[in-house]
Amino acid sequence: MLMRLVGGSALVSNGVRFLLGGPPVGTFILTSLQTIAGLLLLVGLWTPVAGALATFIEIWNAFSHPADPWIHLLVGTLAAASAMIGPGIWSIDAHLFGLKRIDIPARKS
Q: If pLDDT is split at 50, 70 and 90, which confidence band does 25 have?
């Protein structure tokens, strides 16, 4: 849950900061999608989709702003990990669809 909150809040704060600065139209669309993906990660709704979207946007930002790509790579990694791990117990996805449990069977010798 903490990883989802950190990644989502970083996406939202970065998106809001750029949106308040008045970016160009192309950047406005990308930043709006980034902010929406961050909000979805924060509340745990559509976590795999929001995590994948945030990952692709952060990879795009890392390559389009080569001066400092490390923060984009870090947030993109957090978003990808959240998409693969899932939303967690305190999320809207868990309440809507139930918890997913993976049982690994014991090896038979």
A: low
